């Protein structure tokens, strides 16, 4: 009974609540504005059926025939072709390089590089047309650039003075000689003699080969073994041809001064190509000397030695200057040509008489000027031939002898040639050359000192 009363009460309460909410909503609702009410009554116009217009500008993809549809062929799209052909793809290349060993031939080195006989022969002919292959020596280098299957593309031979002979394979074999464009750079330095001239130059960072030049110039005046006690100073000024940091060829000594006790010996080498060097003692001209081959390396001195060809010990009656074939050979002192021709193992020879007792001999020459005749008078520095390898020689060099009364003497110590050359010296011009050389040396030494001091700071 009680439950029924409770449920009836809940229903009556709910009815009253809903009635209250409805009355509240009606009383609180505001009227809709006329513009909005009008907008709600708008409806869009009905769409008209689309009209199909026949035109020639559009081609149907379908064509009707016999109440059936078939596909019409499509016109091919235009393709723009490139004017230039597609670049060819180069095959990968392999580079092989090494120096030539003693006694090796070009063919042997190319064989070691893996080239076949026909390619080796073709390369040898091409390079041989530009360079005498008999002049190959240790230190020269071969570079071969080829494809992975061994087909050569480029072969390069690097020889002296940074000269390269390059052969390139193409439709035809092309060979060219590549020479550097060096810059002439000057240097100056001072050295103190402790044990020998050679050791002093080497310690001071000066080309040690200048010891030979000084010995050749002063050999007949200064006894380097007896007169050097230690502490003597040398000042040198020289030139080097350089391609970047690489030196081309041999350095050339331009001026040297040796303080020997209270005596000062000075040597001025020319830069005019004459080859005449002036030797001074305490500022006065002592003599004129012309080197037989400028810039050459003294490869063998006077005295007993093992013969390079026969292998036995023999007396070497002169000195040898190793130089490139064709290098000019010059008379070392004024005189008269007494012989032109061949003399057994000497090969092609020129001999010059300097007075009645002294004679100089220039051997292994490759050629002699057509204008040079027997009996002709020559001056120091005149060209009388070119370096070669005629006669018994292992390679291009000049064999130079000085004979006194028919007997060979050491060309680096004999002083008789100086007496012949001394008469040709122009004292005024010689003193001017000395003053100029001293000024250049002083200027360069100051520059080197300032540069070294700046680097240390």
TrEMBL record:
Co-factor(s): Zn(2+)
InterPro entries the UniProt entry points to: Cell_wall_metabolism_enzyme, Dup_hybrid_motif, M23ase_b-sheet_dom
Residues in M23ase beta-sheet core domain copies: 314-411
Leader sequence residues: 1-22
SUPFAM superfamilies xrefs: Duplicated hybrid motif
One Gene Ontology MF term: metal ion binding
BP GO annotations: proteolysis
Entry keyword annotation includes Hydrolase: yes
Keyword Zinc: yes
Keywords of this entry: Hydrolase, Metal-binding, Metalloprotease, Protease, Signal, Zinc
PANTHER family: CELL DIVISION PROTEIN YTFB (PTHR21666:SF288), PEPTIDASE-RELATED (PTHR21666)
Name used for this protein in its record: Murein DD-endopeptidase MepM/ murein hydrolase activator NlpD
